[in-house]
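Support case: user asked for a sample of complex input and structure output to validate their parser. Sending the pair below.
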Amino acid sequence: MSALAAIQIGEPLRLVLFLLGIMAFVGFNAAYLVWAERKGAGRFQRRVGPSEVGYAGLLQPIADAVKLLTKQVLVPPGADATLFRAAPILVIAPALISLAVIPFGPALAARDLNVGLIMIFAFGSVNVMALMLGGWSSRNKYAIISAARVVSQNVAYEIPMLLVVVTMLLVTGTMSLTKIVEDQAGGFWHWNLFRLAANPLMPLTFLTFYICMLAETNRAPFDMAEAESELVAGAYTEYAGMGFGVFFMGEYANILLGCSLATVLFLGGWQCPFGLLPGVFWFLVKLYLLVFSVIWVRWTFPRTQFYGLLNLSWKILIPLSLGTLVLSAAMIKLLGR
Amino acid sequence: MSPSEVIAAPEGQRETFVLNLGPQHPATHGVLRLKLTMDGEFIVRAEPVCGYIHRMHEKMAENRSYAQFLPNTSRIDYLSAMTYTHAFVGAVERAAKLEVPPRAEFIRVITSELNRISSHLVWLGAYLLDLGGFTPLLYAFDDREKILDLLEGVTGARLTYCYYRFGGVCNDVDEAFTRGTKEFVAYMRPRLDMYRALVTDNIILRKRLVGIAPISAETCRKYGATGPVIRGSGVAYDVRRREPYSAYPLFDFEVPNFPEGDCMARYLVRMEEMAQSLRIIEQAVDRLPEGPVMATAVPRVLKLPAGDVAYAVEAARGRFMVHIVSDNKEIPYRVKLRTPSLSNLSLFEEASQGLVLPDAVALLGSLDLVIPDIDR
């Protein structure tokens, strides 16, 4: 960090370096989160997981990537080839762009936009369209059912998620992610998660955000889009080779983005709980703890029923997040920020 | 439009599409094919298409001797092979009036019940897989492995056993088997408690199963559904109690039944049945009599007297009956195999009307179909 700061580099070059860094970070994570997921699933299921390729299967992601790259990218006959090819890119690109505003450390953000939060959610909505396009252009009944599900699911969960984010905006008073983190300095009781003076329901708000994040990234127990026992592979059914591989990377990139956002909004970002080690380290620790919990949830719970999922959003999460929003607003009005 | 309106709508006004589920689909666990007429995600009509694994077992029986046909019976429902061979040897013994020694009957009960538990464990894993929970499958198979090891030790086979013979069983069980069985009973009880705590009481699972796809007792009767399906509709029909065979009348066990008729009821019946099977095994191992395991003077060449004979058993999926028509030859004139899965599948068309696709998958899994058992 200090070495980087010492070298005076021009702003365009710095931005390019950071964006390259983010792409490398996402690429590396997509590969090794798959490894972590398979290894973790193995442990949950009393197996060993990947263990043959390299030490503890560490080269497995590389072998997988090579296999996917050597496979032919098939476009099913009658499918809309342009949209079919564009869909995987549309899944991963918004996640990459959104990560540009995430502050990994005090000075480690590609761009500290003062409307960072809005940008993330603007790009986050593209994800739905990409999955829908993938399902629609495949010309496969399972894929179309999956596309229809994805749309209603993501629309339903975007609302409580945005309500939660608006609550956080009220509490922190800024849309710049760096400022939000700086606002939480000084011990873990200053983290937004424990800011009970601003909103006594803060842990519930965090839980709402977490559930919405799982649903938005189409992760189990909300993996309606994939639902392998009902829809074979849902929107991904017709994808082969790297087309599928990019979808897969996009899924992990979105998990990373969601968990980073949760870390920034609720867990104090790079702020360390008791003043040791640099901030990036703490950011990554919090990020990967959240990612681990996402993996844990996936291998523990069965899939929810689709209407149960919508009921959860419309009947529980939306009233709850509306309630916390009104409560925070009232408390800020009465007590001041 | 609701599914009932769609069914009532005239031909030209329907906006439905046909979804082909199977013969290669993750939810059918075999080569079952369902032609689903769908209105959006709602099922208007489900038409099962069978026959992809038809192997002519009944015809094969007509051109080979009884002993030669015996191994076939364990391949009809490969998950419940013990009980299927039991029905066939039972029918032959009944016709030939062979007296089976009590030790052999006890061993048959122990191995059949172990087989029932292993079959239900496969169902448990596969069912939760259908519901989107992958992890329980590996736990269930881990437990099943212990049963397979026990049965392998005494029968030499792990899946398609041919252990029961006309007049008894082919090998006597040894000390290792009885000790291992006792250990398994002691091991399995806490495991069932664990499944209850982790799986049965899981809120997502309850939401997926409670009140989903109820089947009335009338529907079950109409289609001849048996086994856990009819017991999940509140009818305590169990061949082991209604038409007692082998040594079952000697043991104390309950026939679990739940009146709700939904997927949860069928789920609970099977979970409770595993506990009851453990009870039977425990009693049978404790009271295992000494003596021979094979009837004396079993004729080398079996000719059944002319006439017909039937023998029904309670297999893991319901009532399995072998009906032999003999004309006093070495080879049967006709063998009819009444398999539970076919009857249980027949009610799917009626029960699945108006369900959404994931619920239909839950219903299909709760019927616990074994595809070779449907097609025979």
